[in-house]
Amino acid sequence: MIVCHCQVVSDKTIRAEIEAGARTVADVARRCGAATGPRCGACRPTIETLLAVYSAPEAAQPAA
């Protein structure tokens, strides 16, 4: 699903960046462009949620 409509960035891309080491919204933005639209920012809460879920220790991650 598309998370950042301004830059057309999917949740899959964001998860891949998190798995590659992104730990903050700014990290995600630098790596794939999500959350960099000059006037929007609507995707930031979703990116923060993905960071919280996929940066958590393995025991806390949801089952696939």
Report a brief summary of the structure.
With 64 residues, the chain is mainly α. The protein has helices at 11-19, 25-32, 44-54, and strands at 2-4, 9-10.
Q: Can you tell me about this structure?
A:
This protein is mostly helical and 64 residues long. It is 44% helix and 8% strand. It is built from 3 helices and 2 strands. A two-stranded antiparallel ribbon has the order 1-2. Strand 1 and strand 2 form a beta hairpin. Helix 1 crosses helix 2 and helix 1 crosses helix 3. The longest helix is centred in the C-terminal third of the chain and has 11 residues. The chain is globular. The mean pLDDT is 90.
| Assembly context of the chains | single chain
End-to-end Cα distance, whole Å, is: 16 Å
Report the sheet-strand fraction. Answer: 5-15%
- The average pLDDT is 90
- Please give the largest β-sheet: 2 strands, antiparallel
Unreliable stretches: none
Main sheet: which strands, in order across?
A: 1-2
How many helices? 3
Summing up helix and strand content along with how strands pair, one would put the structural category as mainly alpha
Helix content range: 40-55%
Fold topology:
Elements: E1 2-4, E2 9-10, H1 11-19, H2 25-32, H3 44-54
Antiparallel strand pairs: 1-2
Helix pairs in contact: 1-2, 1-3
What features would you highlight for this structure?
mainly alpha; 3 helices; 64 residues
